[in-house]
Write a structure and sequence with these properties.
Number of strands: 7
Helix content: 40-55%
Number of domains: 2
Number of helices: 3
Strand content: 25-35%
Shape: elongated
Largest sheet: 4 strands, mixed
Order of helices and strands: EEEEEEEHHH
Radius of gyration: 19 Å
């Protein structure tokens, strides 16, 4: 088990990833904590393991996923606002056309992240 000390807190995790300006901590069920916008890492320490360094390519791909989250949330809101089955079918068809490129890109990015071990 790894323990990461961050300002004012100790967090147990199984994996600790350190990027250019962030730290992400994970356990077997997924993300436990994330710290972003870090300019000075001197306040962060790790015991019982070592930092995994995110490759620039993985970091870039994850950033792209984050940047497209908003558009997919808009699509989800549109789906949830449907008031009938016919409305839902029409909305899904329109959204599929509108977001086809985004969905395809996100699938490719996730596949590449997994191939790179991220």
């Amino acid at each position: 088990m790894i323990t990461v000390t961050a300002p004012g807190v100790k967090i147990a995790c199984t994996r600790a990833e350190k990027g250019p300006d962030y730290i992400k901590l994970y356990d077997s069920s997924g993300a436990v904590a994330a710290f972003s916008g870090i300019a000075d890492f001197s306040q962060y320490a790790i015991e019982g393991g070592s930092w995994e360094t995110a490759t620039p390519q993985i970091a870039d791909l994850k950033k792209r996923l984050t940047e497209t989250d908003y558009s997919l949330m808009k699509a989800l809101e549109a789906i949830l606002s449907c008031t009938s089955a016919l409305d839902l079918i029409a909305k899904l068809a329109a959204l599929r056309t509108t977001y086809a490129a985004t969905l395809s890109d996100r699938t490719a990015w996730r596949k590449k992240i997994n191939e790179l071990g991220g």
